[in-house]
Amino acid sequence: MVQQTYLKVPFVWEEPKPLIEVPRRLTFEPVKAIRDNPLIRIVARVMASSMDESHQRKISESSPDKAAEKFLKGASDGFDYQDDWWQFGINENGDIVGFVLPVIFAGCTKEGKEEGTIYDIGVVPEYRGFGFANDLLSQGTRTLQEVGIWQVFCDTSVNNLRMISAFKRVGYRQYSEPWERPI
Predict the structure, then answer these.
(1) Sign of the dihedral defined by the CA atoms of residues 154, 166, 138, 124, in that order
(2) At what angle do helices 53-61 and 64-73 cross, to 10 degrees?
(3) Is there a smaller number of Cβ atoms within 10 Å at the N or the C end of the chain?
């Protein structure tokens, strides 16, 4: 069987840099602090409408909620994070507009600093197109800066033009041509 692949655009945030300024349009609350923790439901909604082929594949193999639950449990494989790092972005009406899930790579410490990534980030479909991905990415990046990172490595599908733009606007650098990843 031939393994399917898709193209990802790699980005890096390199330290040292001043702490990133996070726009104040949203407030950020740890996922675990929200009553009835809706993370699985919200991640499932984002994955079901995602431009990322790996999200689409996961959704096609089971229900959106089961795919999201399995995906989130995978964060413990090779990554470390504190519960309060995973946050919802909440607008002035109290609506959750998205989430950001920063993590550090286990075993990638360099000179006492960690290497991080954004395990996932997503804007709820009805709030897309308002620049909230910038706010969420800035918050996730700041969280990792406060942890003490030497770099943040991220990627996104070549089809996800909004996320590519968000990485660039926030200050990430595309460091190579797109490369193939297994779906």
Answers:
(1) negative
(2) 120
(3) N
**pLDDT tens digit string along 27-85?**
999 999 998 999 999 999 999 999 898 899 899 999 999 999 999 999 999 999 999 99
H or E element that contains 116: strand 114-123
Integer-rounded Cα radius of gyration of the chain: 16
Distance, in Å, from the CA atom of 136 to the CA atom of 170, rounded to the nearest integer, reads 10
The residues that bridge with 98 in the sheet, in sequence order, are 89, 123
Please give the Cα distance from 84 to 104 (Å, whole number).
Answer: 14
> How far, in Å, CA of 174 to CA of 167, rounded?
8
Q: Are 135 and 25 in contact (CB under 8 A)?
A: yes
Q: Quick check: 153 and 9 in contact, CB under 8 A? A: no
- Determine if the pTM surpasses 0.90: yes
String of DSSP letters for 61-81 = HS-HHHHHHHHHHGGGSSEE-
